[in-house]
Design a protein that fits this description.
With about 90 residues, this protein is mostly helical. The protein has a single domain, classed as Arc Repressor Mutant, subunit A (Orthogonal Bundle), CATH 1.10.10. The protein contains four helices and two strands.
């Protein structure tokens, strides 16, 4: 697996919980993180309002704010190869 930065991991978690009510173990398997790391990211995402925890169902769901982050992240990823190409042509 290639190196993933923090934003990439966050985007993968939000994508995993995108429009679904998903349990912690499913997120762990989807994103390839340990239980400890998954919980740390989930706490961070909940505090930032990107993810919500549905206590009665013990599931997670991406919020509207999280969907907005995901949209922006995906757009930046689309533009990234273009920026790299422009930089290499400018040398």
């Amino acid at each position: 697996m290639k190196y993933r930065d923090r934003n990439e991991i966050i985007a993968q978690i939000l994508e995993s919980a995108n429009g679904n009510r998903i349990r912690l173990t499913k997120i762990m398997y989807d994103v390839y993180l340990s239980h400890t790391m998954t919980r740390e990211y989930l706490v961070l995402l909940i505090k930032q309002g990107l993810l919500e925890y549905l206590d009665g169902e013990r599931t997670f769901k991406t919020t509207d704010k999280g969907m907005n982050f995901l949209h922006i992240h995906n757009r930046v990823q689309e533009l990234s190869p273009l920026i790299t190409k422009l930089q290499s042509n400018g040398r």
